[in-house]
Structures are given as structure tokens and as C-alpha cells.
Amino acid sequence: MANLSYKAFRKKALEREDVQAAMEEKAEFFALRRELIRMRQEAGMTQEDIAQAIGTQKTSICRLESANSKTLPSLGMLKKYAEATGHKLNITSSPV
For the whole model, what pTM was predicted? Predict the structure, then answer.
């Protein structure tokens, strides 16, 4: 079996309906993780910096930012993270 690049593997995987459904189900979680990382990088901070600023361990921040994490962050943790990066947490909704 030939080695596929990630891009080719992803394209092939997304042809499957079950993979598409799983990706759609997790889309909001992936978006949240991307936003957390964007805020941290925009603030010029490391995971260690964030952990120290909010009084937790770096491993907690790693889990918070990980797309593989099965743990959902609390609103309190998201608020602390946002404030540590110089942001304000806003929650919005939209009709389905």
C-alpha cells in the first residue's frame, strides 16, 4: 500500500458518508479548539503561559486545545482562558 499524504488521505476519507457525518458532528468542537489556539497565538503566549496565568497545569491547556480531547471545557475555564489572552468570552447562537 502506497503512503498517502495527509491531504490525499483526508480527501479519500471524506468521500465516506460515515466520516462526513462524524466530521459534521464535531465541527463546533474543532472550531472552538481552533479559536482557542488562535487567541493564544495572537496574544503571543505559550500553553505554559496560559496555564500559569489561570492557575492550572500545562496538560490541562493541552487537553483544552486538543482536537482529540474527549473532555468538554467548562464555561468558567473558557472565560479564564479568554481573559488570560486579552479577550472577552462571547457566546452566540443561530437558528438551525
Answer: 0.76
